[in-house]
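Hello forum,

I keep getting stuck at the same step: I have a sequence, I want structure tokens, and every attempt I make locally crashes halfway through. Rather than fight my setup again tonight, could one of you with a working pipeline run this one for me? It's a single chain of 243 residues.
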Amino acid sequence: MLLALGLPVDSLVFDFLRSPAEGPPVMTGHDNGVITLNIEEAEDDTRERIRNEMGEPYRTLLGHLRHETGHYYWDRLIFGSSWLDEFRKVFGDERQDYQQALQTYYQQGPAPNWRESFVSAYATAHPWEDWAETWAHYLHMVDTFDTALRFGLDPESAIDLDVEPFKADSLFQPADSDARDFLNFVNSWTRLTAVLNELSRGMGLHDFYPFVLSRNAVAKLHFVHRVAQPAKDQMESRAEAVS
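Reply #2:
Ran it on my machine without issues. Output:
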């Protein structure tokens, strides 16, 4: 997915590790371009146990991968760039104490109204986590939507669905040249997930997509898209120059 989006990956490394029998457990995280994942979470029993312990019912190994790449790309695309001031307006000031913010989150949990501005409860912990969660959600959306289209699923043909579309004022920058395309993407995604949820319910299962995007969350997703798109354009320009 990262390559399909044309994002730079030249300094990105993945370590898939298992905790030793006697020693500290492997902690999933990102450090200066190295993403460490606890491969034990690929095992159903372990993942379900951690899901319950952490209170994260939608925790997946793929979600970890995408979340941690969000931290990598914050360092790569946001830090020290012209995006930083806009980032702080949208996500908040990342200079606040990170460890203290996490401690507060795990002690007190998210605010009751977190769904009005965030894609997940954990996104409320700190602006860095808000960015990483939103980044991961964007990758989920792009990958799943692309897969659906490749198999001929057309969300625009869905009927009898009472889905209120988002409007341009929900976007980060409504006047952007790509604003209409991104808005169409988000609204098509909303219709697609409504259909997929109905299919899950028809099997007596939990919703495939148990999220409700708010206007503020859509604005953050558009910000992620705007950051990712120039990176893709730069990579394509470099490839053309080399060829």
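The CA atoms of residues 235 and 241 lie 10 Å apart. If your local run keeps crashing, start a new thread with the error log.
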